[in-house]
Amino acid sequence: MITGGIIYIMAQFDKHPGEKALADLPSEPVRSFETGFGGDVVLPADPEYERERAVWNGMIDKYPAIIARCAGTADVVSAVTFAREQDLPLAVRCGGHNVAGTAVCDGGLVVDLSPMHGVRVDSENWTARVDGGATLGDVDHETQLFGLATALGAVSETGVAGLTLNGGYGHLSRQYGLAMDNLRSVDVVTADGKVHTASADRNEDLFWGLRGGGGTLGIVTAFEFELHEVGPEVDAFFIWFHADDMTDVMACFLEWTDDAPREAGVLAFTAHVPDLEEFPEEAWGEPAVAMLGTARGDLEDDVFEPLRSSATPIADLSGSMAYADLQSMLDEDYPDGLRYYWKSIFLTDVTDEVVDIMERYTESAPSALSTVDLWHLGGAVADVPQDATAFWHRDKPYMLNFEANWEDEADDDANVTWGRDGIAEAAELAVASGSYGNFPGLNEDPAKLRFGDNYERLADLKTTYDPETLFGADGSIAARTDTD
Ligand SMILES: Cc1cc2nc3c(=O)[nH]c(=O)nc-3n(C[C@H](O)[C@H](O)[C@H](O)COP(=O)(O)OP(=O)(O)OC[C@H]3O[C@@H](n4cnc5c(N)ncnc54)[C@H](O)[C@@H]3O)c2cc1C
Question: Which residue intervals define the domain FAD-binding PCMH-type in the entry (predicted)?
Fold first, then answer.
């Protein structure tokens, strides 16, 4: 008896959290869940388990008990029901690109929508129906066939769902708003396993909360987006200057952003010059300030000229290109499995102190792959009232984002500390506040920072639609409890 107990305990020590949680589940419900499931159920013993539990950020190393690769809405409903009935932690995966790695969880069930990535364009009504597991590349691929696009992010491998539900900034935002502002409706599975359609005139409160609340209210199985005429060719602006010219370049950038047309958007960032043939070899590894943007429509000849002539560039890689190519241009800079820590804060203004932070932190970055990004927002994003959706920080014209990108596990602490300290220092400034749900660090900050004055309404909705906080892995907001 005693020996058997010791052997049992030893065996438990050898197991990872996914194996332990699965061993603790009653076998009959697991079997019947597998049998009724239309897609693939991946368990720790399966050969594809290691591949399927990996997400984009190589720092994340979580071991789920079950990965449910859904084929359709019925699978999503049965996965939600199973997790709720078995009291399992639950995580939801679309593109797996959340920086904090919230698409996986230890010892729980991952509802993986990535097999559901269909996109259907209605070219007459300029809308697209996008399945809940699609990537930005899936959408651009189909919509560009008709010379159409919706406002999404700037890297094609990112998931539509995570990006859109937390806002979604990209090249088209100043003209067409956040990704979520382009939503006409969503189909969503809530914690009770019910399927709803939410839109401006159906389940309006759910629609309000899904736009900006992240994945906290349910699992979206389909999005209906508005489309706009974009491309297929656009003017891309991509220019690099030496960091010695930072003061002049940033002064020009800020003057330009003051009255930039909505058809043009530019992001400024500090970095180190990559050792690529597009750059002069003598500049490789040098600190730099760069700008990336695009212009569309009938703008004056070269809307970027004032920026281009702000100093002598190291490299000017601008030119006309296919919109879809612009959208995937940065993909290879962010490979799966590298280590990442990205954290943001919004700015009402870019003061000398902000520029000084960008400059100093670029010099002290532990990794030459890291960047400090300054997003120019405003335009159509700021047209929508702050309380019209759960997304609060529309009124801020800029966002500062520390992107720590590095290779070795041994450098984790140094890089996370770099990004965290940079944002903490910025947070001391009177112009800085809030945080963006899509660049959340490791979700260490309180949800109130994200949701501002919308927090209470979102907490009420959370309590109505997900009273047990089944959708809690994204760290955004918890249902109210009796003690609240
Ligand atoms: C390389 C890269 C580039 C980026 N560029 C931009 C950019 O240009 N603009 C910008 O705004 N952001 C950008 N981001 C941030 C990006 O928006 C977030 O990382 C986002 O969370 C990624 O979405 P995902 O679907 O891949 O997330 P996943 O990791 O798959 O999921 C993250 C969370 O989203 C929720 N979720 C996922 N799918 C669903 C669903 N179907 N229904 C309900 N909830 C769901 C869940 O809460 C889940 O925990 C970028 C990120 C990366 C890695």
Answer: 59-230
